[in-house]
Design a protein that fits this description.
alpha+beta, Alpha-Beta Plaits, eight-stranded mixed beta sheet, 13 helices, globular, binds flavin-adenine dinucleotide, binds iron/sulfur cluster
Length: 375
């Protein structure tokens, strides 16, 4: 039976629940809103499979990449809609054009984040853009395995721990699988996200939401904005917009107040996930390659294994140089002393009020300085 000693270590990948032959593990939300496995002990036969597929119990060593690139999607509209340079869409289109399927994180109709798969280029817009909430993986690994066994090309994207979970779940290598993870600072609580959204909609009379972007680039890639698009009562298109340093949800995220506990001891960053490629923002672009930094977004593409890259605008860069401006690739975010207080206050007074009380100017500006290479 699943034997993670400390709950804090579980990253919620759900490999154990999806692999259990007796279907006796369910993923249930704790009081912070994160999913954890719960075992029905009466059904369990103690076969040990859940322990064997757990990426936290079976950690891989860190790796060094074989190549690193600065890259952008050649389609400017897609680059504009994407969080960094839009390379995810370029890789995903190549898979779909080969008759394959692409898994990634999307909003559902209640604006919660979950993993889905798409098999046509138009639906890729649902996966595009970072959603700063832990996505529910559901039974995506099992569905991906079915496609892989049928011989379909599969591109599976997610956080490093989701890719590590997929790899352990599959228990063998597939030539038709491309596994892509994103650099991951940590994922916020789905409960904090939903509570924040309810509060902000109530306070601003927002209903009929048509789109949410955590990384809108209208005011620049580096000074990005959180945007909610909605239809007003007269039928006109309206938007709620705040830059990342002003928006209270982004402040709670960037100050490490609402991350999953395992993010402070991540089992999968630094190439430990077993992915083929990691996608990140090329923070520090103004120092690394100023001649191509137009503040419209540059992807930092890190290649861990041999494989073809699709045609895109890219140039080789030194990994060690880019790493200096993107600490999350190798280092865990610090667990804040105020984290518990933040969740407690969020329950009593709401997420906005709790963020105001628990963030300080310096907690945010440290992050700003680090990721932007301004120090
Ligand atoms: C929670 C989170 C933390 C991040 N932290 C960092 C960081 O510290 N440093 C850094 O350089 N980059 C970070 N990123 C990654 C970065 O923001 C971009 O996602 C990445 O560079 C890919 O950008 P793109 O322009 O190629 O594609 P985009 O279209 O912007 O990204 C789409 C990809 O992101 C995936 N995705 C979106 N939301 C989620 C989610 N909630 N869970 C799993 N996968 C998701 C989709 O499945 C798809 O693969 C983070 C992303 C997320 C979601
Ligand atoms: S030991 Fe086997 S039966 Fe029991 S929970 Fe784990 S996978 Fe399921
Ligand atoms: S890390 Fe994944 S496999 Fe391990 S216990 Fe948690 S949900 Fe299960
Ligand atoms: S920081 Fe690590 S544990 Fe947390 S969501 Fe990202 S990959 Fe998973």
């Amino acid at each position: 039976m699943i034997g993670i000693i400390d709950k804090k270590d579980c990253c919620g990948c759900s490999a154990c629940a999806q692999r259990c032959p007796r279907h006796c593990i369910t993923m249930q939300s704790d009081k912070e809103g994160f999913l954890y496995p719960v075992v029905d002990k009466h059904q369990c036969t103690d076969c040990g499979l859940c322990n064997r597929v757990c990426p936290v119990i079976n950690r891989k060593p860190a790796q060094q990449p074989i190549a690193a690139y600065a890259a952008t999607n050649s389609n400017q509209a897609i680059r504009e809609q994407s969080s960094s340079g839009g390379i995810f869409t370029q890789l995903a289109e190549a898979t779909i054009n080969d008759g394959g399927v692409v898994f990634g994180a999307a909003f559902n109709k209640n604006w919660e984040v979950e993993h889905i798969f798409v098999d046509n280029v138009d639906d890729l817009s649902r996966l595009r853009g970072s959603k700063y909430v832990q996505s529910r993986i559901g039974n995506s690994y099992a569905i991906a395995e079915k496609f892989l066994k049928e011989g379909k090309e599969v591109l599976f994207s997610g956080t490093p721990c989701q890719i590590a979970g997929l790899k352990r779940f599959l228990r063998k290598e597939y030539d038709n699988l491309k596994a892509i993870d994103i650099a991951c600072h940590g994922t916020p609580s789905p409960w904090i996200w939903k509570s924040y959204l309810d509060e902000i909609c109530h306070a601003n009379n927002i209903s009929n939401i048509s789109g949410i972007q955590f990384r809108n680039k209208t005011e620049g890639w580096k000074r990005y904005s959180f945007v909610i698009k909605y239809t007003g009562c007269n039928g006109q298109e309206c938007e709620f917009r705040e830059t990342m340093d002003k928006n209270l949800f982004m402040k709670s995220f960037l100050s490490d107040l609402c991350l999953r506990p395992s993010c402070h001891k991540c089992p999968a960053r630094s190439g430990k996930s077993g992915s083929d490629i990691t996608l990140a923002d090329l923070w520090g672009a103004q120092h690394i390659c100023p001649e191509i930094d137009d503040d419209k977004g540059l992807s930092f593409v890190i290649v861990w294994r041999d494989g073809n890259m699709p045609q895109c605008n890219m140039r080789a860069i030194p990994y060690s140089e880019a790493l200096k401006y993107n600490p999350s690739l190798e280092h865990d975010s610090r667990e804040r002393k105020r984290r518990k207080k933040f969740f407690r206050l969020a329950k009593r007074k709401g997420v906005c009020q709790s963020t105001v009380q628990c963030t300080t100017k310096s907690s945010l500006s440290m992050f700003w300085k680090k990721i932007k290479g301004l120090f």
